[in-house]
Amino acid sequence: MFEDVSILIPYKPDNGIRDINLNWIKKYYKKFFPHAEICVGISTDELFNRSRAINLAAQQATRNIFVIADGDIFYEPNVIKDSINHLKAAPWVIPFKKIVRISEKNSRSLIKADPTWPLEVTDFEIHYPSEFSHVGGLNIITRDHFMAVGGFDERFKGWGGEDDAFSCAVNTMCGQYKRLNHTIYHLWHPAFAYNSNPNGNNNLMIRELYYQANNDMDKMNQVISGSETIFKDKIKQRNSKECIYIVAVSNDTYAQHLAVMLHSLFENKESKNPVKIYVIDSHISVENKLLLARTTRKYKAKIYFKQIDPTLYREFPTLEYLTHETYYRISIPDLFDKINEVLYLDSDIIVKKDITELWNTDISQYYLGAVEDHWVKDSRNNDLFMPKDSKYFNAGVLLINLKKWREDNIKNKIIQFINNYSDNIMYCDQDALNAVLHDQWLSLDPQWNFQTDHIYDPNVKINPAIIHYTGGNKPWNSNHPLKEDYLQYKKGKIMLPKVSIIVPVYNTERYLRKCLDSLVNQTLKDLEVIVVNDGSPDNSQIIINEYIEKYPNKIKSIIKENGGLGDARNHGLQAAQGRYVGFVDSDDWVEPQMYETLYNAAIEGHDLIICDCIAVEDGEENGQVITGFSGNWLSKEQAIMYSTDPAFSCNKLFDRTLFNKVKFPKGWYEDVGTTPILMTYSNSVSYVQSPLYYYRQRPDSIIKSQDKRTLEVISAWDRVIEKADPKYMEEAVFTVARSISIFIDWKAIFAKEFMKFAEKHRAIIENNKYYQKAVKNNEIKDLFRN
Q1: Are 503 and 530 a contacting pair, CB within 8 Å?
Q2: How confident is residue 631, by pLDDT bands cut at 50, 70 and 90?
Q3: How large a percentage of the chain has pLDDT more than 90?
Q4: N or C: lower Cβ tally within 10 Å for the chain?
C-alpha cells in the first residue's frame, strides 16, 4: 500500500527546535513507513511560505497518493492505512478529530529517544476541532485531486489561511473531504498566529476570496486562475454549466442492467454539471423505457431514446455474448450535429467515481480516449494490420471526439474495413475501431475501465472508478467476483444516505434522547443524523456521544461556537451527504415513518415535500394538528403564497440542491426568511396530508415570547422580497403580506413596527393581485384600512 505514497513535509529551517523535531519525524516515517517516499519542501522565504514548501515537496513526489503532514505532527501508524482506504469513496481525507498538543518538557523528552509506538505522552493539552475547523496539519489526497486545483496558493505568506483556501478549492472542484475520528500528536515549538504575521491581513483577504467561491465551481475557477503556484499549468478549468453527454446502447434484455449502470453513475456524481443521457434503442419495451426514465428523472437528468438504421450492421459477424447492437455505437456521430464530444458507456458496467473527472479529459488531438484491453492486448495486431507495438483498446468506455470523427469520415472507414475484412473480425466493432484508429487514441488511466481480467492479474493494483463486466460471465448470470458491486446498486444499497436529518442542539438535554430515539428508529434506514452542538453549555454533548457510540454509522456530531439555530443548520448542511435534507429541533420528535413517507413522495419527482404537525404543550404527549398547507389546492404558486403559515422547516423534506440558492440567516424567525424563498426556486412541491412531526411548545419558546427580538421577523420579510425568484415575486409578496397580518394579531404589542414595514412596501402589497383578492374575500384584513 505505501509503495504508492509520497509524504509531503513543508519546512523552514530554524537551527533550533524545529530542526530537531523534523529529524525525529523523519526517523518516525522511516521506521513505520519504510516503503513510503519522503519529500521535504523547504521554504527559504523570510516569512515561512508553507504553501510553496508543500508544492515544492509535491514537485519532488513520484507517487500517486500524497500525505501532506507538518514537520511536527505524528500519529498512530494505522491512521494512514485507514485514510487510504477511505480515498475509495472520498476525494480527500482529514483523518483526525482530536489534537494532542504536547508540552515543551514532554516533547523535548520524547525526541531524545528513537520513535516507537505507543509513546508515553504525559503532559499535554487536548483540542477538539469541529467538522469544519482546523483542516490542515495532516491531509491525504490523490495526486490528481491535488493537481486539479494547482496545489496550494503561494500568495499566502507567513502563518495562516492556506489550509482553509486549499480545503475550499478541493471541496468545490473535486468533492467534500471525509473526516475520520483519529488523533494526531503535535510536538512543541514556539507558537505563531495571524496577529504576529505582518502579512496576516493579506492572508485573510485571500482566504475570503476562497470562502466566497466555496461550492461555486465557476467562481472557484476564477479564484484558482488568479493564484500563484508552481503547478499553474496543471490546473484543470472546470465549468459547472457544461453538460455531460452520455451515450449507451441497449435492447430490452439489457435495459434493466443499463438502469443499474445509470443509478451508479448518478449516485457517485458530485459535480454540478448537468447530464443528458442518449440511449440508442433496439426494441426496448415501454415498461423498461419508463424504468430508465424514472431512474434519470430521480436525479433531474434528461434521457432521450434514439434510433439508427440497423440494416447497416445486420450481416456483420457476432459472438455469443456480443449481439448486433454492439455495432450501433459506430453510428453515434450521426445522432448529433452540434455536440462535439460524448462519453459512450456499455450497459454492463458500474460507475464508482464521479464521471466528471473523466469527462474533463482533453481529447482534442485524438479520435477518442480509451483503456487498453487487458485480455486482448496485442494479440489481434496481425489480423487487423496494426503495427506490432500498437496498443489495442477496449471499447466499453469511450470518450469520443465527434468533431474529429465527422471531419475524417471515421464511421464509413470503420464500416468499409468490416466489409473488406469480415473474416478477420473476432471482437465485432471493437476490432474494426482498433484497426482504423490505432495510434490515434489517448490511453486513459485503467481505473476508468477495470475489466474482469484485471482481477486475475496479480501485478495489477487498480482502485476501479468503473467496473466493466467483460466476457460472457456477468454478475446477473454467474458468481462473478465483483457481483456485490452490481447488487449494491441493483438493490439500491447505495453508499451515500438518501436523507440527511440535521438536529441543532442548545440546552435541550432534557428532551434530546426522545428526539434522537425517534430518528434512529426511522423506517427509512438509509439516512444520517447530523447533530450540531451549537455551543450548548449543558450535558447535551454527553448524550450525543452516547448515541454516536451506539449508532456510529448513523449519528454524526458537529461541535461549534454558539451562533443560533440558522447558523447551526447551515453547518449541518455543509456536512450533509444525503440527496434530501430534513430538520428536526432537538426538543421535538417525529413519527417512525416520517422520512420514509416524505422520501417516497420525493422520488416521484418532487423537490420539496410538506407534512402536517402536531403542536404539543411541554409535558404532554398529545396535541393539536397543524396543517402543513393551508391553501385551497396544492400548486407551486399556492405553496409559495401560504409558505409562512406555517413557515416551519421541520415539517418538510428538501432537495439539498435548493440550498445552493439560499442559506438560513442568523437570528430569530430564520424559517420565515428561508422557506418562502426555497419554495420559489423549487420545481415541484408535494403535500403529505398526515401529521408526522411533533412540535413541542415550551413556555420559553420563541413562539410564546414577547421579546423584542420578535422584530427580527421584519428582516425575514425583507429577505423574502429581496431573494425570492423574481418569476414568483407576486406570490412572495402575498405570503409576506399574509405573514404581516398574522403577526399583527399574534404579537399585537409590536403592531406599530409591523405596520411601519408594511407602509414601506405599501405599493407592491396593495397592487398585488393575490392580496386584492384575499382582502375582497375577507381572507385577510386590509393592512391599510382600519
Answers
A1: yes
A2: low
A3: 47
A4: C
Comparing 19-28, 129-138, 495-504, 625-634, the range with the smallest average pLDDT is 625-634
DSSP letters of 361-391? ---TTSSEEEEE-TTTTTTTTTTTT--TT--
Residues 755, 741: Cα–Cα separation, whole Å = 9
Nearest one of 181, 229, 172, 153 to 83, comparing CA atoms: 181
| Contact status, residue 668 vs residue 627, Cβ threshold 8 Å | no
Distance from C-alpha of 414 to C-alpha of 435, rounded to nearest angstrom: 8
DSSP annotation of 722: H
In this predicted structure, the answer to whether residue 632 has a pLDDT above a threshold of 60 is no
Query: Tell me, what's the pLDDT at 493?
Result: 39
Report d(CA 425, CA 315) in Å as an integer. Answer: 13
Q: How far is CA 342 from the centre of its chain?
A: 24
Give the DSSP H or E segment for 411. helix 410-420
Q: What cell was used for 491?
A: 438493490
- The two most distant CA atoms of the chain are separated, in Å, by 95
> Which residues lie below 8 Å from residue 562, measured CB to CB, with a gap of 6+?
506, 534, 535, 536
The closest alpha carbon to 71, from 35, 31, 103, 40, belongs to 40
Helix axes 162-173, 200-213, angle to 10 degrees: 10
pTM of the model: 0.43
- 3-state DSSP: the chain helix, strand, coil percent, rounded to 5? 40, 20, 40
Three-state SS letters, 11-80: ECCCCCHHHHHHHHHHHHHHHHCCCCEEEEEECCCCCCCHHHHHHHHHHHCCCCEEEEECCCEEECCHHH
For 371, other C-beta atoms within 10 Å of its C-beta total: 24
Smallest CA-to-CA distance from 574 within 243, 142, 225, 135 is with 135
Tell me if 693 sits within 8 A of 588, measured CB to CB: yes
Q: Where are the alpha helices (DSSP H) in 174-309?
A: 200-213, 217-225, 255-267, 286-298
Q: Are 465 and 447 in contact (CB under 8 A)?
A: yes
Pairing of strands 5-11, 65-69: parallel
C-alpha cell at 119: 509513546
Q: What is the length of the chain?
A: 786
Residue 689 three-state SS: strand
**Range of lowest pLDDT (212-216, 307-311, 628-632):** 628-632
Helices (H), 174-285: 200-213, 217-225, 255-267
Helix axis angle for 713-723 and 729-746, nearest 10°, is: 170
- Backbone conformation region of residue 619, classed left if phi is above 0, alpha if psi is from -120 to 50, else beta: left
Residue 178 parent element (H or E): strand 178-186
- Sequence-distant (≥ 6) Cβ neighbours of residue 121 within 8 angstroms: 100, 102, 106, 110, 185
C-alpha to C-alpha distance for 628 and 207, rounded to whole angstroms? 42
Say how many CA atoms lie within 13 Å of 118 toward its Cβ: 5
Beta-bridge partner residues of 555: 529
What confidence score (pLDDT) does residue 262 get? 95
pLDDT tens, residue by residue, 481-527? 999 889 888 875 334 578 999 999 999 999 999 999 999 999 988 89
